[in-house]
Input
Amino acid sequence: MFVLKQDSNFKNWVETFLLGESPYSRLLVAFIVGLIAVLYLWPALQLPLFDMDEGAYAAVSREMVLSGQWWATMLNGEPFFHKPVLMYWLQALGLAIVGDGSFAYRLSSLVALGLWLWATFVFVERHIDRETAWYTLWIAMFSSGIVVVFKAAIPDAWLILFISLAIYRGLDFLSSAKAADLNWAFVWTGFATLAKGPIGLVVVAGTFFIYLILTKNWQKLKEMLLAWQGWLLLALISLPWYILQFVLFGQDFINEFFGVHNVGRFMSPMEGHGGTPLYYIVALVILTLPFFPLLVRSILPWWRWSKAEELAKVLAIWFLLVIIFFTLAATKLPHYLMYGIPPVIIAIAYCARQHGTRWGLGLTLIVVALVLTSVPWLIELSMQQEKNPYLVDTFGLATELVELHYFIWMLVLGLAGLWLVWAKWGSLAKIVFSGILMTLVLNYAVLDYAAELQQKPIVEAAEFVKSNQLEVVTCCIEMPSFNVVAQQLTPVRMPQAGEVVFGKTYELEQRFTQVEWLWQGRGVSVARVLKE
Output
């Protein structure tokens, strides 16, 4: 009986500790900082940049620093109109702080993580209660979508932060009617637009417009539409860079930035990134791992909550707007759904605190472990039907490239899932335990394996070029992380006789009659063109 009582007391202490209610507040802070270091900082430092997105954005930021042209986004000397300038400025600041390397380009996203966690905690504590705020913090820290996006060298972390801040302040305005809250909502929307374009305005304005129409709150709708100070602030923050790009590049900027990368992405699949209407349902499962079972259990409680409270209704509209908008869009990428994940995390936290976790988390870990264990064989099997020589060369030996530690992680994850099914711990302890394990597996097994498969040949080629001080042009390949690792610009064009070229091996073999192979890896090569 004494042992059982001690065990019960310890479990209660863990729950109290994780809710920030124990006297060990400094230990809790140290625990959180340690988790962020292990689960975010160290992987951001060790993992190579992933192409296309991370590699391209890092290369543009590096080129901006080297050229000193802080107003223009260029890749290999050519205008690069994919995204607005804010991310590149922030990555350039990372370069100034920690020097060149993958961590420099990811540092700004890690800063956004800290700001977003803090802002979301404060918001939930103010609008719901402190316990739900702690549930939200822990679920947010370990949701797989957050883990990936908020340490990636992409603008999405800051877009999520600014969208969240704008909607949080908009909700503050609905309850306080203070002009300052509304103005801040416009300010953060302006920064969201500068972070990734018009989608920031679409999500924030669309959420409140739909909510106020549905609730027939015409007075608040009128106040928002006629808030000239807020609109002015939004314009002053977001428009100058857009206007400058039009002045510098004219219609080319309009055609590519708005025509191709905004309207074009909505109207037709870009770079083959299409999908079925169920695409984002599958993405939602993956992005909320290991907490998707909690989301399923939250659907009906969230519905009832949204009928009773303004906050829950706005959160639901926010999420539904994002998932419906991008389901209708032709181009589909999983991280687009991340713009609507914050309200999902808050709803999961609210309902998990009310209704507990049961056995869903344990079963999820078991299923994930089984699926991930089979991934190397599934990749190799898919390559047997693949006709692209580059993909076959790069991924065709997937089972030979996977290391023992990958399967050890899967075994640990599966055994932990079995234990969780039967464990009698509190809900928050189960959430944190499953979240830590899932995030460790994601970072140190899944992403590590993905880097080995996709990026290692690119990194090795770039390091060869750098160590031998070769001047290189790029042909027949889009892997801009090569520029960053090789620390040089590599013009994308057909090489002339005598020049060194980096490209896909099979393309170089087909395009040139005679080459000297300087370095060869899986799917890619560095060669000197002897005869065109």
In short: The longest strand covers residues 524-531.
